[in-house]
Write a structure and sequence with these properties.
Low-confidence stretches: none
Order of helices and strands: EEEEEEEEEEE
Structural class: mainly beta
Shape: globular
Radius of gyration: 14 Å
Distance between the termini: 40 Å
Helix content: under 10%
Amino acid sequence: QAQLVESGGGLVQPGGSMRLSCVASGFAFPFSMYAMSWYRQAPGKERELVATITSTGGSTNYDDSVKGRFTISRDNAKNTVYLQMNSLKPEDTAVYYCSARRVVSRYWGQGTQVLVSS
């Protein structure tokens, strides 16, 4: 059974850094065949796409609100995708979700809470 498990969330002060991890298991195809993304959902708001990385890791895309501050990366040998978040702002507070996609199949993790506050 396909599973994505996020970790690394918590409380951080504005201007601080945090790294989220997402480990995949039980997929029908090798992890390296899935494009991976991070989404986030703040209270009372729609879920939004934060960053995406292609299956090989050769290309990445970011929402304008996080460009230059966040970096998505992956280690296919460890079935893991990361989101390095620097210069965090209070508006980055949200539940962050990892997602895997291949063709028409999409999978979601359970989410990890990130709270940016002094």
